[in-house]
Amino acid sequence: MGLGAAGCSSLGRGEPILTQDITALPEADIDLARASEENRLRLIDPQFANEVTVVGDRWGIDSARLFFKESNTLILAEETDAAALRAATLSVSQRVPMVTYDASIRPKISQLLADLDVDQLLVIGNVPWASQNGQLEVIHDPGNTKALGEYTAFRFTSKVVMSRERMVDNIARLDSSTKTELKAAWEPLPQHITKEKMPAIPAQARRDAQMAPVIVATAESPLANVVNATAYGGTVFVMTEPDPSATKAGAAITAGLSEGPIVALGPEFGSVTEFTHKITQGWKE
User: Which domain of life is it from (predicted)?
Assistant: First the structure.
């Protein structure tokens, strides 16, 4: 079946077909023409209009720049699963960007801090970063639930992510209005006892103004990119394959978007040219 052909859907006309659960729908319930129509009717931030973007950076630098033009706070996380989930919890809750730390990108992180006008840096895990000349408030996270309440003035409900393969999906489903603390079942986050009260991390307004482009990821996408897109306010569709023509759900998510607006959150999607070509191909039964 080509991209423009309609399938037989059991969904009511008032229900959107493009939800994060579309990958669980039977193929017979996915109407490609209807999905294309929903994509065309989206209100879009002019920044993303008519743009196909593939974010190849694995550390979150490029996605932080893409989704945030300024931010009083940035979260810098050690490259571990536990630290990433802790960062995701706080980033989405307070709508601030995150970056995964690597020594090779230290200069780029410094430049990002300056460009976003960051004055508060929350460091999660074993990251060698200290305040210099008092220009930046550097907070070293003790890793406990008590600190979450002190940062945000909210109580969080814990949710255990059972496998690495589920990390992206769980991050994509975080909502800033429901305070959920993600934890890795396989990797506890080291905690430190401190009598010092943690400073507040001010919540920022959502950046998407409900005009986000279609945003796609896979289970292999860099976690920081998924966090930043979700903190921005966008809905991230987690596709089972990076090739949108490989499944009917993937074709529906990207239907009609060969000229944008769509953002793909990982290098697994290939170049913009390759990704655009696969969108154009559509799904064939």
Answer: Bacteria
Residue 228 CA to residue 88 CA, distance in Å, equals 8
Structure tokens at 171: 């991050």
* pLDDT tens digits for range 173-218: 999 999 999 999 999 999 988 888 999 999 999 899 889 999 999 9
Alpha helix stretches (DSSP H) within 80-232: 81-94, 106-115, 145-152, 167-172, 223-232
H-helix or E-strand spanning residue 120: strand 120-124
User: What is the rounded distance in angstroms from the CA atom of residue 236 to the CA atom of residue 221?
Assistant: 11
Q: List the strands of the sheet with 73-77, edge to edge.
A: 98-100, 73-77, 120-124, 137-140
Cβ(201)–Cβ(179) under 8 Å?
Answer: no
For the 68-184 domain, the top CATH level (class) is: alpha beta
Residue 144 phi, psi dihedral angles, 5° rounding: -105, 165
What are the tokens at 224? 């920081």
Report how far apart, in Å, the C-alpha atoms of 57 and of each of 8, 60, 67, 87 are.
Answer: 39, 6, 14, 18
> Is it the case that residue 2 has pLDDT exceeding 50?
no
Specify the pairing of strand 157-161 against strand 137-140: unpaired
Q: What are phi and psi of 59, to 5 degrees?
A: -95, -15
Global pTM reads 0.93
For strands 73-77 and 98-100, give the pairing: parallel
Contact 142, 192 (CB under 8 A): yes
- Considering the chain, what percentage of its residues have pLDDT values greater than 90? 86
What mean pLDDT is predicted for residues 242-271?
Answer: 97
Domain boundaries, the chain: 22-53+209-281, 68-184
